[in-house]
Amino acid sequence: MLNTWNLAPRQIKLPYGKVETPQPTGAFAPKKLSVREFSGGTVDYSENMIVFTTLPPMNLDATLDDEPNNWTECILAGPVKRRILSTPGFPRSVEKTAGGKVNHRVRASPFGGLGVFATRPIRTGDLIVAERPLLISPRGFEMRVESKGLTQAERIQVTMQEWEERLDVAVKRMTDENRKVFMALANSHTEDRSGPIQGIVRTNGYRVPGLYDGHEGDNTRAYTAVMNVMSRINHSCSPNTCHRFEMASLSFELRAIRDIRQGEELFYSYCDIFRTKIERAEELAPYGIVCACPACVGATKETDLLRSELAKRVEKIQADHHVWMKDQSRPNVLAASLKLIAEIEKEGLSGAPSFTSLLGMVANVYVESDNMNSAMKYLDQFNNHCRA
Ligand SMILES: C[S@@+](CC[C@H](N)C(=O)[O-])C[C@H]1O[C@@H](n2cnc3c(N)ncnc32)[C@H](O)[C@@H]1O
């Protein structure tokens, strides 16, 4: 299904919190959708078209027995659909946990609302869940440029109403089961004039890595995914999980970035955790979150500095390590690496790629020093972190 509404490159900064601007008058009603039907396998679209499509392509009489990995309802620019369909191996099966065992469950969280909890111990690097999104839609909202006579706030509202209509088309196309799960998700955007579906997308969306229109890194042309289990995971600035997206299976994988005890709540970070507490608070405000995670409650100048300077400190250790590898009469980086590893673990930042580098360097120093027991211990940790 195709909508000929042009994609414009101007992204709107969406309002959040309580919006008092009056609704625009009827004279500026949202533009009606102009839609054309195409067969599901069509890929020959022009760049300025938005495609409503179900992926993997679905037969009209299909049931979950035909596609146990479920379907994703998508709103995509034409060339993006082509890119997904031509990914080698698409549609690959979604990854399973070891032995197909379920290791998590959704239940009430002390943070309010629901959260996801480990139902058995989970080791660093282990898969927790892999799932296809219920919905993938553009992350940016493109401003209606032709709405003359409106204030900026009114133009934003008209554009938001138009987006709600487009999202509604996608939600109506979902299977009954998926629609029920989707509409039951949390919505923290009930007072900012987001429509009910847009509110769910804004509350629960994960940015889809590697999926974008045009150039990579162009934020206005990225996509967001809403999921069943993963959209129930709460935020922490010291997360215990990380995720990645695999285009060939059109799925997200969630893995542990440290050992997780049975009963522990699972968290990922909605913001850049390598920023100061104040900067993180600014990033989290649109989600309606005043973060009360231990890292925010216990934040100090030192923890802010650890986070913002971590990459630089690891780079320095890496440079020293290279020098030592060439000339082992010089001091090695063991003490500096172990000290930083301890600081990172205490602050709950062990998902940082630089943490994995430190583990590798420590293992390396032990190997060169013929201390194989210690080397194996750090190599083991290094490998688990690489899996994550
Ligand atoms: C993706 S949902 C997470 C699941 C949600 N708790 C639920 O009940 O379905 C995001 C919303 O959960 C709440 N939330 C997530 N992490 C939080 C935290 N650390 N502190 C307070 N609220 C949080 C906020 O309302 C946020 O908008």
From TrEMBL:
Pfam family name, one: SET
Keyword Coiled coil: yes
Protein name: Predicted protein
UniProt-listed PANTHER family: SET DOMAIN-CONTAINING PROTEIN 5 (PTHR47332)
Species, as recorded: Laccaria bicolor (strain S238N-H82 / ATCC MYA-4686) (Bicoloured deceiver)
Domain (SET) ranges: 102-271
Superkingdom of source: Eukaryota
Coiled coil: 153-180
Keywords in alphabetical order: Coiled coil
InterPro entries: SET_dom (IPR001214), SET_dom_sf (IPR046341), SET_domain_protein (IPR053185)
Alphabetical list of SMART domains matching this protein: SET
